[in-house]
Design a protein that fits this description.
This protein is an alpha/beta fold and 185 residues long. The protein has seven helices and six strands. Strand 5 and strand 6 form a beta hairpin.
């Protein structure tokens, strides 16, 4: 990464409230941005997709919310994730590595927050799940930025995701904020 790029990224992170990343960009960039965000006391949300089996220990510290799906959780922990209990144990492994919070998305089976709080997924007729995880993450981050609690943000992410999966395509399926009903908590 060139120095001008680093300075531009530094200013962007400095002027942001939340940093949301996936592992689809070079890992060096993920680490650099995460460290910047931590140094500026910004909230860090990481969707570890595509998941890698051998991430360095330094990766985990500073992540406020890690949002793997069941497959990514299995890859990150090196364990099968077939039951809710196994998924909860997988979340414990990531929490022990230094992640502050883990939200495991399980498709139509719901969401697990950290190790004990389960959120039932809304029942909808799914047409295309292509952008489901991205939609959830974006809506979750938006709700946190607006001052919602984590459970409220998860519920808002679920509501947005429930709309997205009923539509075809990735970007066209993402609902506007106004389309998403505010969930009652």
């Amino acid at each position: 990464m060139m120095e001008k790029e680093r300075e531009n990224l530094r200013e962007t992170v400095k002027n942001s409230d939340i940093l949301v990343m996936q592992l689809e960009i070079p890992f060096e960039t993920v680490m650099y941005l995460k460290e910047l965000a931590v140094s500026f006391h910004k909230l860090v949300i990481v969707d570890p997709a595509p998941a890698a089996a051998s991430l360095p220990d330094s990766f985990w510290n500073g992540i406020d919310y890690l949002k793997p799906n069941e497959t990514a959780l299995s890859i990150l922990t090196g364990r099968q994730m077939n039951t809710r209990e196994e998924i909860a144990r997988g979340a414990v492994i990531l929490l022990e590595k230094g992640v502050r919070n883990v939200i495991v998305t399980m498709g139509s089976k719901g969401y697990l927050f950290d190790t004990e709080r389960f959120f039932q997924a809304p029942h909808v007729k799914a047409v295309d799940t292509t952008a489901a995880g991205d939609c959830f993450t974006a809506a979750f981050a938006l709700a946190l930025a607006e001052g919602k609690t984590c459970p409220e943000a998860i519920a808002f992410g679920q509501a947005a995701c429930a709309i997205a999966v009923t539509r075809k395509g990735a970007q066209p399926s993402i609902p506007s904020k106004e389309e998403v009903p505010s969930p009652s908590m």
